[in-house]
Write a structure and sequence with these properties.
single chain; 448 residues; alpha+beta; Methylamine Dehydrogenase, Chain H; 5-stranded antiparallel beta sheet; 4-stranded antiparallel beta sheet; 7 helices; 18% helix; globular
Length: 448
């Protein structure tokens, strides 16, 4: 009798609990769907988490206390801190940096003195593209991709707003409104190739297994061809080029992407480099006009045929989160190996690599030691100099330095110090011989 009573009581409890158990089961299953298959509200949760992390990292920036582009440094002295006059390549250094609270383009002499500067106001160039915080746009503006001509004209990529050509007096010559970023280069006929992206919000039948990420879209990396007069001539998709080349293996090489790609930024191109005719004979695998790009998120450098736009060559590694590969006159490729592992260097510091594309062998590498050791969790650029030295950017460390490859020694350094212990980010850098800078004796009229 007691056993029968207990069974009745247990059955009664199960009956009373079953609606809650059912709800719990539904919540559990739906939670799996949110986490694994991006069911709503996955996108909203992702945006909220990203916003919270952004505020955690950049609250001083948003409150106007200190720019996010000013970061801690062990350096206490700014300007030129190393200068070996016998070994450093003499010239003027064109640099984009966060300077005096905003992104600017500067021209430095070898002593670190600013001999010229270019500024711009994106509110005047792209008023329709600045929808949020127009008052803070000068603080938030990021120049990422720049080039200077001997006459003092500059081309500047203003991140995700557009590209502008300024004359030597910072007067706009033309601008385009596109999501441009990272890099640009000049074709033999004078046209520009500019790195851009397009947000794709839908699935497309010609791109099987490629789906929008948690933000509701993915970034389709593009190259934009612009005439010398600023007219957009065409824009072509690097994702489509991979499909056309039957190189989907590159696109789907990320974690879990053997099933499908559901990420915001599957490739993240940070380079466009055109092989010029003077160097082409040194590269048995390539021809003049071939185009090199750098897909950071899959640790891969690709060379496209300049005419067919199909993949001609690629190498994945031996680098991690790389930036800015350059063709060298000896038939090698020089690149900036970030070794990105988030906020801390877990696989070694950032280094410079020289790679032979025949066999993808490392033939030279440099990793700074002591006070010259550095790690960049994003960004990065290097530039080979005519005397064989290499000019490199420590972006988050706020400095430029010149390395002599044979000795591995730093023979020139400039630190963009804001105050002791804090330096402004440095993004782009190029050293020009003195005879290629022909505008310094031409004054600009005072601002109206």
């Amino acid at each position: 009798m007691q056993m029968a009573t207990r069974i009745v009581r247990i059955a009664d409890r199960i009956e009373r609990l079953s609606p809650y158990a059912a709800v719990a089961l539904v919540m559990f299953v739906y939670g799996i769907g949110v986490g694994k298959y991006d069911w709503p509200p996955a996108r909203q949760l992702k945006m909220a988490m990203d916003a919270a992390q952004d505020w955690k990292e950049n609250w001083r920036h948003y409150l106007g206390i200190r720019s996010r582009y000013v970061e801690p440094t062990p350096r206490r002295t700014g300007g030129v801190t190393v200068y070996d006059r016998q070994r450093a390549f003499d010239g003027y250094t064109f640099v984009t940096a966060n300077y005096e609270g905003m992104a600017q383009a500067l021209l430095l002499d070898m002593n670190g003195e600013i001999v010229h500067r270019w500024t711009l106001d994106p509110r005047e160039l792209w008023p329709d593209r600045i929808r949020e915080s127009p008052a803070g746009i000068l603080r938030d503006m990021n120049i990422h991709g720049a080039m200077m001509t001997p006459e003092g004209e500059v081309f500047l990529n203003v991140y995700a707003l557009g590209t502008v050509k300024l004359d030597r007096c910072s007067r706009p010559v033309w601008s385009i409104a596109r999501d441009t970023h990272h890099d640009l280069d000049v074709l033999p006929n004078g046209d520009l190739l500019i790195v851009g992206w397009e947000k794709v919000f839908e699935t497309r039948p010609e791109r099987p297994r490629l789906f929008p990420g948690p933000e509701g879209y993915y970034l389709d990396e593009t190259l934009i061809r612009v005439s010398p007069e600023g007219e957009i001539l065409e824009e072509w998709s690097l994702i489509d080029a991979l499909y056309a080349s039957d190189r989907q293996d590159l696109l789907f090489s990320g974690p879990g992407s053997t099933v499908a790609s559901r990420v915001k930024d599957p490739l993240h191109n940070n380079t466009v480099e055109v092989l010029d005719a003077e160097m082409a004979d040194a590269f048995p695998l390539f021809e003049a006009g071939d185009i090199m790009v750098s897909f950071r998120n899959i640790n891969t450098v690709v060379v496209f045929d300049g005419r067919s736009r199909l993949v001609k060559w690629s190498t994945t590694g031996p680098f991690l989160g790389q930036h800015d590969p350059d063709f060298l006159p000896d038939g090698h490729i020089l690149l900036y190996d970030n070794r990105i592992t988030g906020g801390k260097a877990l696989f070694g510091n950032t280094r410079l690599l020289e790679i032979d594309p025949v066999g993808s062998r490392i033939v030279w590498e440099w990793e700074g030691k002591g006070e010259f050791a550095f790690y960049n969790r994003s960004r990065g650029e290097q530039a080979p100099l005519p005397n064989g030295n290499i000019l490199a950017v420590d972006s988050h460390g706020g400095r430029l330095f010149e390395v002599e490859p044979e000795s591995g020694e730093v023979v020139w350094e400039w630190v963009n110090l804001v105050e002791p212990g804090w330096a402004g980010n440095v993004v782009d850098a190029e050293r020009y011989p003195r005879d290629q800078v022909r505008f310094l004796d031409k004054p600009c009229p005072p601002p109206a």
